[in-house]
Amino acid sequence: DMVELLKIGSEITEFPKELFYRNRFEDTRQRENQVATQIQSWFRACKVRAYLSHLHKKAIIIQKIWRGFTARARVRQMVKAAYFIMKMNFYEEMAVRIQRRWRGFFQRKYIHNFYARKSYLEGVAIKNILVRRKLDKLNEVQKRERDCRAMVKEQEGKVYQAQRLHHLMSTKQCPGVFNSPFRQAPHEMELLLRQVKYQVPTRLAPRGRVRPQGTPSPTNSRTCCSREPGEVWEQQVQCPDLMLSLQTSYTYLEEAQNQLQQQETVRVRTETHTVCTHNDTPTHKIMLQKSYHIH
Amino acid sequence: MSQRQIIQVFEQYQKSRMQFVQTVADLASRPINIEILQNAGVMSMLRPLLLDVVPSIQQTAALALGRLADHSDDLAEAVVKEDILPQLVQSLVSQNRFYKKAAAFVLRAVAKHSPELAQAVVACGGVGALVLCLEEFDPGVKEAATWALGYIARHNAMLSQSVVDAGAVPLLVLCLLEPEIALKRIAASTLSDICKHTPELAQTVVDTGAIAHLAQMILNPDAKLKRQVFSALSQISKHSVSLAEMVIEAEIFPAALASLRDQDEYVRKNVATLMREVVKHSPELSQLIINYGALSGVIDYVNDCRGNLRLPGIMMLGYVAAHSETLAMAVIISKGVPQLGLCLAEESEHHIKAATVWSIGQIGHHTPEHAKAVATAHLLPKLLEFYMDASSSEDLQAKSKKALKSILQKCTHVPGLEPLLYDAPSNILKHVVCQFSKVLPHDSKARRLFVTSGGLKKVQEIEAEPGSALQEHINAINGCFPEELVRYYTPGYSEALLERLDNYQSA
């Protein structure tokens, strides 16, 4: 067809032009590609940057609001704590004031009481004086007692002397030693001699040597009655308990006497006595009584 | 030979034995004869006579033996060596009361010399036999047995323990209740000897209720009994607070004060000892005793007696003052300090002086008031003298130094401190100067007094190393006075002035 042929003819003539036109940018293709990439990348960056800054701004807003919230909460807490601490300090100071007053009072009243100490020391001084006085009085009383006793003893001594010296008393004929004619008045001894009644002096106990308790004085028993030389010895050997004092049963005396008498009768049958028999039992009794000295 | 003659031989022998034994016993009562008897071999002669048939010879032989052993150490040892003790102990159980008395006398005479001999007595069963004797009726036997037990218990704690273990203590307390005074005395003395060693022994005695009985006997008029009773109570109370409290609870106190004025000096001494032992333990006990007015009694006691008898009184004052300052002030008020000063002046024995110095230290070291009381009694120079004196014993020197230091640290009484400036060695001097440096800055009158009495001059003359505490105190003192005054008193000032005069050219 013609039309188609014309079209193809135009196409053929146009073809190199078209080809040239279509490939006119081949030499700058690389560069233009690069540039286009750059432009595109820059644009994309702008978009992203805008997005990021948008995000950033929103994030800042959120953070701002959040931080404000927490800070306010913290401040509220701090205020509460400070208030609490201020209250506690106040209370503590008041408590210290109370304790100070109380402790001062307590110490001054109970522990280091000045007035109590003062009155105690005064009391001690007074008590000392009282005790001294009492002790002095007691001392005096005791001294008086002692003096009294000494005087009584002295007087008794004088009376005893007077009793012994009765023979020195003055008679009508002859004035005694204590009643010398040159004196105005008789000596006190003379008066005592006249007052004191004469008494027969009792014999003092002889001071012997060490005598073991339980034996009778050996000489006495030998001399006061005549006995056979061996009799006392035999008695001592056969009943040694006889010669000791303080027997236990109160019938011992009778039993011992019976014992002796039995031995006597045994001996009478074997020997002849030189002593009169009727004197035997009484002397025996005296003997036995003498040997029962209880010291 | 007829029977009569044979029996006569025996009688003569018995008579001569009896005579021998009696003569030996009589001779043994005089100390001069004992050596001669010992050389003649009396011990071996007496030993068979102890086993004689006739009881009175036995008793006299035992008595003679006792007297010999009583006299000297070697004879007692000879008794032990010849094995006489076991015989004695055995026959102690069986024989009659006179023999028991004589045998107990021998045991006592042996035991009294030394702990070994007492141990020998214990070893042959003497303690058990003596305790059996304590159960007798006769008071003479009980007295002899108690005395023997007392001498055994006296030596040491072990022997006392053996006496207690034999069950003697309840019987001894029963002996206290007997009417005979001699028995009471000996029982009290034995209890005192038992208690003195350890607290356990004292507790054993207290557990049998001895304190109440001892307390009742305080009012007894017999002086020797009172001596022993107070000694027993003081030995009991010395061990611990609870024992002392028990003794006080028996209410001895107002009555015991009357015994402080007793005629017998040992009664007084023992009462003072009792008070000292009680007061030693705690301030409450001291206060209790002071409330009864004991201080005046003790001070009068210290005033009246001399020598060693004063010692318990002085120590009691020291112990009382040591507990607290109130009690020390009570001692000062009762005029204790002048009394102690008198004691220092009158006594010559060093241990008494040391005790007095210690007591003064205890009184003075509490507060300035106390130190002032000591200083006004002019005791500080005396203390210094004792410290410096080369002839005083070490104990005295040490105690006086300690007392002086402790009093000086509290003393602010300037007239009392001044005499010490002159003679004191440097270690005492630094305390004195330190006290001055504390007092002088505040008191103008004291400063004036210090200058006029020559104290400032003396202080300038003291040489001290720069930087030492002494120098600091001296500087502090110099700081209280104007400079011209200090310069005026420095040694060598007159020479310095003369030099200035030489160099001066008149204008």
UniProtKB/TrEMBL annotation, chain A:
Region annotated Disordered, chain positions: 206-226
Residue ranges, compositional bias (Polar residues): 214-224
Organism, as annotated: Acanthochromis polyacanthus
InterPro entries noted in UniProt: IQ_motif_EF-hand-BS, P-loop_NTPase
SMART domains referenced in this protein's UniProt entry, alphabetically: IQ
Protein name, per record: Spermatosis associated 17
PROSITE patterns cross-referenced by the UniProt entry: IQ
